[in-house]
Amino acid sequence: MTSGPRPGPPRMTDVRAAVAAERREQAELLAGLTPEQWDAPTLCAGWRVREVIAHTTMPYRMSMPKFVVQLVAAGGSFDRMADRAARRDAAAMTAGQLVAQLRDNAEHPWAPPGGGATGALSHDVIHGLDVTVGLGLDRRVPPERLGLVLAGMSPRSVGYFGADLDGVELRATDRDWTFGSGTPVHGRAQDLLLVVCGRRLPAGRLDGGAAGRFTAG
Predict the structure, then answer these.
(1) Alpha carbon distance 52, 41 (integer Å)
(2) Residue-wise over 105-138: b if at least 16 C-beta within 10 A, else e?
(3) Burial code of 3-18, b = ≥16 C-beta within 10 A, e = fewer?
């Protein structure tokens, strides 16, 4: 499904350093947003910037017992539980508090179940792009971090996010990376990552005969 150089597995300390750097850089960017930007929509359907950041910082505030209680209350649906928690915390916390949560927990060891440190990096990078692309900000994810996330994308990822990539080959224009097979869709690697994750992008970010399938509007 992918092509390009295949280096050996990264050291855990390197991945954790990448996670911390990503969180700190996002916190710096978020600290400069206007109130209007905090209330603007993102690529996460139904979530503004503040809901996305409430979600990415939720693991720093929620203990495992509390997580289980809320998951049961949501009928066992993680998506329902996460949505409720993001909306509740976004309403209760100021933008400054959300930024502080991200900045102060840059080295927090949380990782998604079974995802390890690379899963934590993917979680932060993808949701960071939900924000910056949604706001029209031209933030480039550092290439080495983006490479770690792209290396983790697989057919299982497509299934998890519900993306429809049948008959499509994603081809990055800024690095040696492809995904899938079929009609080519060209774009920057970080935009194609969002396609794999089931996001619909603003117009003009993708090229190719099938690009319209992944464009909003």
Answers:
(1) 10
(2) bbebeebeeeeebbbbbbbbbbbbbbbbbbbeee
(3) eeeeeeebeeeebbeb
Give the 3-state secondary structure of residue 110: coil
Q: What is the pLDDT of residue 196?
A: 96
Contact 43, 79 (CB under 8 A): no
pLDDT mean across residues, the chain: 93
Distance CA 188, CA 70 (A): 38
Taking residues 102-128, report their average pLDDT.
Answer: 96
Q: What is the DSSP string of 139-197?
A: PPPPHHHHHHHHHT--HHHHHHHT---TTEEEEESSSS-EEESSEEEEE-HHHHHHHHT
Tens digits of residue pLDDT in 37-75: 999 999 999 999 999 999 999 999 998 899 899 999 999
